[in-house]
Description:
The protein is of the alpha+beta class.
Amino acid sequence: MKKHLLTLTAFLLAIVTANAQEVKFEEFDLENGLHVILHQDNTAPVVATSVMYNVGGKDGDRNRTGFAHFFEHLLFEGSENIGRGEFMKIIPANGGTFNANTSQDRTYYYEIFPSNKMELGLWLESERMLHPVIDQVGVDTQNEVVKEEKRQSYDNRPYGQILKVLGENLFKVHPYKDTNIGEMEHLDAATLEEFMAFFKTYYVPNNAVLVVAGDIDIDNTKKLVRDYFSEVKRGPEVNRTFPKEEPITETIKTKAYDKNIQAPAIIAAYRTPGFATRDARILDMISTYLSGGKSSVLYKKMVDEQKQALTVQAVNLGQVDYNIFALFAIPLGDVPLATLLEEMDEEIVKMQTELISERDHTKLLNQFENQFVNSNSSIAGIASSLATYYLLYGDVNLINTEIDIYRSITREEIQAVAQKYLNTNQRVEIEYLPKNDDQ
Length: 439
């Protein structure tokens, strides 16, 4: 009976996915190099205006880390035509919402407005790009904001230093070794001239993509985009020549300490190919197979059945140049960290030596089909995906076709990728321990 239910679920989901509306879009470039993507969906009176800049934590001087994240905040300060602090008042006053976020690879700003306020969204983003106010008052204000964010999200949060520990141990020469939020002493030491130079290098139209999605008229939107953004001057071309990491060929064992935790954790981390590769997508499937929900292999075994772990995870952290595939577990009671690692390794070895079952393979395909449908279920999600696929993947139409890549992944490929990347001599093993007065 269970087999029939699984088959029926797969069949129904395949119908839903096959009938999911294709995300149609138009692309064009302004003379200043700004790439523009428009998506029309008139089913609801909502529009998203967003700009993604090709700048993240990995960019800039390594003695001035955290600049991209800093600018995520700084570019809300105001412009020549928007008073200080007014940016974040204008949007809700006009029925909109907004946010921004920064990764190691890009910075993303967006607003969601009623569709009759679409022009306001374009004006706000053009102001941010054309002539923001970058002065000492704004720098000092945002410096304190960033420091408070670091205290809350990293320094004083349990397990908040894990990404920092992973970066430091997996990368020796690539700038992924540095945290996205940066070092506070770097921001303290930076001059106003350095901040202005960073803006002129990276926040230029030829290093960005503008997406307008939702209840729009295409011809009118094209005209408005040209009206608001054509005036922005083209910037220098950004050339990236990041050093490449040497492969890890022997197990690296280390310890890290966190004053905010009482329970230790074990981490096994691998440096793997960047997220645009087929192998990275296969590793997505492997991580989901291992710990994608309470019915996953590691959760059922180590949390439910053997009661060895409070939590267990396998994650594939996506980045442009290198991904991070990591196994993570917190013991239940006095279970040794070494035991947790052995149990996780046992499941990796099974994947390397045996094909996963057809049932588990079908379940994986269903999970990724569901994720695909959900990612395109909102205007905000579509806008983000369009920008990401253009800027970081180099193929906007992946918003419609990436699911076909996942559908084509075989059990044999899953086994081969596990054999290729997930070996003990290719990883860093980290005991993540409570910090006491002696450390």
